[in-house]
C-alpha cells in the first residue's frame, strides 16, 4: 500500500512532531529540581550549560573557585575526584568568583589556570558573584537551602540527585580521602 503525502497530512505530521517535542522538553523541565533550573555560560566559551539537562539525577559538587588563591591547587584533587566517580554519576561544577579578590580579571587567564595548569575537564563557568547582593541565582538557592554562604574560595556544596544540598564543606576540606569523598560515595550508592 502506498501512502500519499498531501498538504493536510504534512501539516498534521509537522504539528504533531512540534507538540511531542515541546511536551518532551517541558516534561524534562517538570522533572527537574528547582535548583537546576539554571543555565550559565561556560568559562572562556560561547557555550551555555543547561543545568537541568547536564546535572539532573546526578550527584553534584559545586565549588566557588579562584585561580590566585592558596587553595587553587585543590583543582588537582577535584579533577582526580571527578575522573574517579564521573562514570558513577558524579558531576562537578566550578564557579570562578572574584568575591574574595583572588580571581583574574580576564577569563582567558582564569581558563589557562584551570584547563592548562590543572587539566580541569569538569564544568567551569564564567565568573560570577557567589555571595552578597549580586549573588547569581544558583548560588542564592544553594545558600538558602544550606543556610551557609561561602566564607572563602573553594567552599564545597554537595547536592543529591533530587537537587537538595546535603552538606557544605569549608575550603580546608580536601576533595579526596576525607568526609567529602565518603559522602559522595554514599550518595552515589543510594542513586542506583
From TrEMBL:
Assigned keywords, A-Z: Oxidoreductase, Peroxidase, Signal
Single GO biological process annotation from the record: cellular response to oxidative stress
Residues of the active site: 69
Signal peptide: 1-26
GO molecular function: peroxidase activity
InterPro entries cross-referenced by the UniProt entry: Glutathione_peroxidase, GPX_AS, Thioredoxin-like_sf
Listed CDD domains: GSH_Peroxidase
Family indicated by similarity: Belongs to the glutathione peroxidase family.
Family matches, as PANTHER family: GLUTATHIONE PEROXIDASE (PTHR11592:SF44)
Record protein name field: Glutathione peroxidase
Organism: Catenovulum maritimum
Amino acid at each position: 500500500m502506498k501512502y500519499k503525502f498531501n498538504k493536510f497530512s504534512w501539516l498534521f505530521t509537522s504539528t504533531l512532531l512540534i507538540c511531542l517535542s515541546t511536551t518532551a522538553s517541558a516534561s524534562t523541565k517538570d522533572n527537574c529540581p528547582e535548583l537546576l533550573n539554571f543555565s550559565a555560560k561556560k568559562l572562556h566559551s560561547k557555550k551555555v550549560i543547561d543545568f537541568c539537562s547536564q546535572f539532573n539525577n546526578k550527584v553534584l559538587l559545586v565549588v566557588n573557585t579562584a585561580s590566585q588563591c592558596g587553595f587553587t591547587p585543590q583543582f588537582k584533587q577535584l579533577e582526580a575526584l571527578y575522573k574517579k566517580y564521573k562514570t558513577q554519576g558524579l558531576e562537578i561544577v566550578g564557579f570562578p568568583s572574584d568575591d574574595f579578590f583572588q580571581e583574574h580579571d580576564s577569563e582567558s587567564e582564569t581558563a589557562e589556570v584551570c584547563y592548562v595548569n590543572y587539566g580541569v575537564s569538569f564544568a567551569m563557568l564564567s565568573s560570577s558573584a557567589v555571595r552578597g547582593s549580586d549573588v547569581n541565582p544558583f548560588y542564592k538557592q544553594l545558600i538558602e537551602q544550606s543556610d551557609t554562604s561561602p566564607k572563602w574560595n573553594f567552599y564545597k556544596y554537595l547536592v543529591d540527585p533530587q537537587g537538595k544540598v546535603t552538606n557544605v564543606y569549608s575550603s580546608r576540606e580536601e576533595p579526596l580521602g576525607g568526609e567529602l569523598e565518603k559522602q559522595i560515595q554514599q550518595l552515589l550508592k543510594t542513586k542506583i
